[in-house]
Amino acid sequence: MKSVFLIMLSVLLLACAGNETVVYSNGFSFANYKYVVIDRDDNSAAYGLDIRFGNAIADYHLAVVGSKEYDNLPYAQKKQVLGARVSVSGDSDRIVMGIAFQDYLSGRTVASMGTSEKGDLFDKGDREDVFMIVFRSVVLAINADRQKAAAVGARQVVAPSPAPAAVEPAPQNNVDSGAEYKPYTLTPDFSD
Q1: Taking the alpha carbons of 176, 181, 182, 186 in that order, is the dihedral positive or negative?
Q2: Is the pTM above the cut of 0.85?
């Protein structure tokens, strides 16, 4: 339900504005985040845009982590995780594409960027062109927030290494090896 709301909100924001739209929540800054979890969206996954976005965003100081890696992060790092959802829709005349960001810990939507351009959704070149327009908006926003934070004197944010994998606990030996331990086998009774 939340994902449907985010998609509808993105489409509504895109429909109400001009071609390119960038909307921030009050007090939001990309400078406060180091990680991003790419949420799945069926329509963008069909075109590989979610993977393409993950590969590209990793070059701009946001480490891409999976939702299971997120579970292993300490609380201090969980506060620095964004969720991102790439959505795309359209037809043979127009492509609507957006990227919605949410604070992954709270679930609150904090930024949305998107565009509506002439093009054929089923043409790879047109999709790539629209993706680059939206991604350029994301990159400009990240760079502007980071520069603003650096000018204020905040420390420079550098992408951290991915979260370590969970350590498997050592198997517990619950078998008592003392003299009282007597193995036995149950033998079924088929006499009926």
Answers
A1: negative
A2: no
